[in-house]
């Protein structure tokens, strides 16, 4: 085996491992917002939660989602979609409570 082949194989393995880590974070990150959503809906109180801030988060996630779709980046698409869902739930909770 040539040295360049070994280096290339090692690089591909590291890239695949990093991509897998990013995919896990893309899923776990938005799940971290679930306690906020639970708090809003279980107490029926959104006092102290900024509608403007969460609406901006929604808008920025929508832009990232469109960008992820354009460049066909699976972790970015998944993360942006999940963030958009949970952020929208917070906005909805703020609006109704």
Topology:
Elements (H helix, E strand, L loop, with lengths): L2 H29 L2 H10 L7 H21 L2 H23 L1
Helix pairs in contact: 1-4, 2-4, 3-4
Radius of gyration based on Cα positions:
18 Å
Question: Could you please say which CATH topology applies here?
Answer: Monooxygenase
CATH class: Mainly Alpha
H/E order of the elements?
Answer: HHHH
CATH architecture assignment name: Up-down Bundle
Distance between the termini: 65 Å
Count of DSSP strands = 0
Major beta sheet, specifics? none
Overview of this protein structure:
The chain has 97 residues and is an all-alpha fold. The protein has a single domain, classed as Up-down Bundle (Monooxygenase). Helices cover 86% and strands 0% of the residues. The protein has helices spanning 3-31, 34-43, 51-71, 74-96. It is elongated. The protein starts with a helix and ends with a helix.
């Amino acid at each position: 085996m040539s040295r360049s082949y070994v280096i290339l194989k090692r690089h591909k393995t590291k890239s695949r491992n990093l991509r897998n880590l990013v995919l896990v974070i893309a899923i776990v990150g938005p799940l971290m917002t679930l306690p906020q959503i639970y708090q809003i809906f279980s107490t029926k109180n959104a006092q102290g939660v900024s509608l403007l801030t969460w609406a901006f988060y929604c808008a920025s996630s929508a832009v990232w989602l469109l960008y992820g779709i354009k460049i066909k980046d699976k972790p970015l698409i998944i993360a942006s979609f999940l963030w958009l869902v949970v952020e929208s739930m917070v906005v909805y909770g703020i609006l109704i409570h």
